[in-house]
Amino acid sequence: MSSEEVKVLARRINKLFIEHDEVKRIWNRLDSMRVYIERDEFDDEDDEEKDPRHLFITGLSGVGKPQIGKRYAKSVSRYTKKVDDEEIDIIPVLYVKLPYPFTQLDFYKKILKALGTENFRRDARINMIKDRVLLLLKKQKVQMIIFDEMNFIMRTKNFDNQTAMEMLKDLTNEHQVSIVCLGTPQIEKLHIMEDEYVRRFGRDHINRFDNCNEKFCELLKKLKRPFNRRFP
Question: Which InterPro entries does the record cross-reference, listed alphabetically (predicted)?
Answer without folding.
Answer: P-loop_NTPase, TniB
